[in-house]
Amino acid sequence: MVPHDGIQKCSYKHLHSIIVQKTMRLSEELELTENSDEINIQYDKGLISLIMQTQKIDHLNDIYPASTDIFIAHKVFGNLLGWMLVLDHFELASFKVKSQLISCLKEPDITSSLFTYIFDTLGLSRSNKPYDLLNWDISEFYIEGFEVQHSFDLGLPLLSAHLYYRSLKHVPSIVRIWWSECKKRQLSIAVDSYTEKYFSPVIIQNQLEMLQSEDVKSQLEDEKFSIRIARSSNEVIASFMVDEYVMELSIRMSNNFPLRQAEFSTLERMGTREVADLKWAKLPVQTVVNSQNGNLEVALNLFKNNINLRFRGIEDCPICYSVVSLDDRSLPTKQCSTCKNKFHAACLYKWFRSSNSTSCPLCRRLF
């Protein structure tokens, strides 16, 4: 039986719809439950099995147009559609759902083959010239226009580029780990340069435009909190002001962000006098963006909420240094009966598990 890409496309559309509905439902359920561990979020086993079949293909001509290899071509297309479905999970998912989904992808055997394949396809692993993406919109890919039999040479690199873009958008920490651990120096350098040229400008522009949208500005900005954007330096500066007291957070994105981490700095001022560099305010938002794949909107929301809650007298968790939990957005409620310090439940659970004890992280008495 000759494969038909129309069936593959229809299957993808159907599964895409199911996945979007599923992640929205899980996001709502997680918001309503106090213990996120009660809801186990995983990818479908069949989908994981499909994406694990990613094959390294050095030369497309070895696959196509030879009619005997059309089956392999369809298998490759189906495999990449599987990766599209994996990343579809992130489109409308809440931060909690995304965090659990990302943990499922941290096994190196799952993602390493994808990135190796992507950069092979885009020509970064070979001596010939890398694929020129200058005239293509990497943020979009129209499945309907992809035909294995007629546009394989063009469609496959564009689909691979789109998958890399979506990986940088949704799971940059996983891409960063693969890149930092890449043992091929020339490939690592090529990926760095290629990302800076074609992908980072799009990612950075999207982040800045998101912060300038009316919806986000209306949620973040008020009489106390304001945001300034310096496009020339790819920098976002958030200011929290009460009378003469000012607290600032600066987020600077490098030219190859998010392949390289964003840089964070904080400053506290009283009038014209600088008071301190607020590490407690910097560390949580830095963790959210650089380690937990959060976007700048999520980071600024966390920064604002942490400050507001501290003004209300709520202390940060001594483990993660954030008032709002980085895992489930809860407040520190688990109090040590001895030292009276309060911790996030999720942070305390991680501490108990890593230390193999139930002692308080600060006073070391039994909790």
Automatic annotation (TrEMBL):
Per UniProt, which keywords does this protein have?
A: Cytoplasm, Metal-binding, Repeat, Transferase, Ubl conjugation pathway, Zinc, Zinc-finger
EC numbers: 2.3.2.27
Which InterPro entries does UniProt cross-reference here? LTN1/Rkr1, LTN1_E3_ligase_6th, LTN1_UBC, RING-CH-C4HC3_LTN1, Znf_RING, Znf_RING-CH, Znf_RING/FYVE/PHD
* SMART domains listed in its UniProt record: FANCL_C, RING, RINGv
Name the catalysed reactions. S-ubiquitinyl-[E2 ubiquitin-conjugating enzyme]-L-cysteine + [acceptor protein]-L-lysine = [E2 ubiquitin-conjugating enzyme]-L-cysteine + N(6)-ubiquitinyl-[acceptor protein]-L-lysine
Pathway membership of this protein? Answer: Protein modification; protein ubiquitination
Q: Where in the cell is it found?
A: Cytoplasm, Cytosol
Q: Which GO terms describe its biological process?
A: rescue of stalled ribosome; ribosome-associated ubiquitin-dependent protein catabolic process
The family classification in the record reads: Belongs to the LTN1 family.
Q: What job does the chain carry out? A: E3 ubiquitin-protein ligase component of the ribosome quality control complex (RQC), a ribosome-associated complex that mediates ubiquitination and extraction of incompletely synthesized nascent chains for proteasomal degradation. Mediates ubiquitination of proteins derived from mRNAs lacking stop codons (non-stop proteins) and other translation arrest products induced by poly-lysine sequences and tandem rare codons. Ubiquitination leads to CDC48 recruitment for extraction and degradation of the incomplete translation product. May indirectly play a role in chromatin function and transcription.
Q: What is this protein called?
A: E3 ubiquitin-protein ligase listerin
